[in-house]
């Protein structure tokens, strides 16, 4: 019971801090999920979106799973010093696992019709998968989308890639575009 209540309490405090008008720095990430990962991230879109808006930082949606190629990119490529620092300092990150089995509250359940099949969306993973397919017309992981704080596409997307210099160039391009949008 405590394991479920405490993260919810902490998350509530984090969201409240993010919504504070005096919030001058990036929000604190929730103390739940994968603590061993060197890149902190929200595990849901709503909190990440709120933090990105409050701090006027670009938002990276990081669709992921526990599949080995996804973990390989997460652990070996994105956690290198260059990319980890750029990600941590310049972006708000939502790591949206499509295989997360955390149950949604029953009032958030819905049926999703796709390709003549019906799916009960009753877990966080299915909700994330639904969003990825509906918004980006793909269901591949890892998949990254870089958005403005108000949810518009800032710069294309990138998928599995082991070239850290390429990923750094994508992030650099996104930051340049973000600066252009925000310059007077």
Polypeptide structure, described:
With 184 residues, this protein is an alpha+beta fold. It has a single domain (42-182), classed as 3-Layer(aba) Sandwich (Glutaredoxin), CATH 3.40.30. 43% of the residues lie in helices and 18% in strands. It has helices spanning 2-18, 45-55, 68-77, 81-90, 124-136, 164-182; strands spanning 59-64, 92-97, 110-114, 117-121, 143-147, 153-159. The strands form 2 sheets. The protein has a 4-stranded mixed sheet, with helices on both faces. It has a two-stranded antiparallel ribbon with strand order 3-4. β5 and β6 (153-159) form a beta hairpin. The model is unreliable at 1-25 (pLDDT under 50).
How is the topology of this model organized?
Blueprint (H helix, E strand, L loop, with lengths): L1 H17 L26 H11 L3 E6 L3 H10 L3 H10 L1 E6 L12 E5 L2 E5 L2 H13 L6 E5 L5 E7 L4 H19 L2
Parallel strand pairs: 1-2
Antiparallel strand pairs: 1-5, 3-4, 5-6
Helix pairs in contact: 4-6
* CATH fold type: Glutaredoxin
Distance between the termini: 51 Å
For the secondary structure, the number of strands is 6
Summed over residues and divided by their number, the pLDDT gives a mean of 80
CATH architecture heading: 3-Layer(aba) Sandwich
Oligomer, anyone?
single chain
Count of spatially separate domains: 1
Gyration radius over CA:
16 Å
**How do the helices and strands follow one another from N- to C-terminus?**
HHEHHEEEHEEH
Helix content: 40-55%
Question: What's the helix count?
Answer: 6
Fraction of residues in β-strands: 15-25%
Helix and strand composition category: alpha+beta
What is the approximate shape?
globular
CATH superfamily: Glutaredoxin
Q: Within the largest sheet, what's the order of strands?
A: 2-1-5-6
Main beta-sheet strand count, sense and barrel state: 4 strands, mixed
Ranges where pLDDT stays below 50 over 5 or more residues in a row are: 1-25
């Amino acid at each position: 019971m405590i394991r479920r209540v405490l993260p919810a309490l902490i998350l509530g405090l984090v969201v409240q801090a993010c919504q504070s008008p005096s919030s001058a720095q990036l929000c604190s990430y929730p103390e739940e999920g994968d603590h061993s990962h060197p890149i902190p991230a929200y595990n849901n879109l709503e909190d990440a979106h709120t933090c990105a808006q409050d701090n006027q930082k670009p938002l990276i949606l990081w669709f992921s799973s526990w599949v080995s190629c996804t973990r390989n990119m997460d652990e070996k490529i994105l956690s290198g010093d260059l990319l980890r620092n750029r990600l941590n300092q310049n972006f708000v990150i939502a790591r949206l696992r499509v295989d997360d089995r955390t149950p949604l509250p029953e009032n958030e359940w819905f049926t999703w019709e796709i390709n003549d099949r019906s799916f009960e969306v009753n877990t966080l993973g299915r909700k994330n998968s639904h969003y990825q397919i509906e918004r980006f017309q793909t269901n591949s992981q890892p998949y990254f989308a870089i958005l403005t704080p108000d949810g518009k596409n800032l710069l294309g997307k990138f998928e599995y890639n082991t070239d850290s210099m390429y990923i750094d160039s994508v992030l650099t391009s996104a930051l340049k575009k973000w600066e252009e949008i925000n310059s007077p």
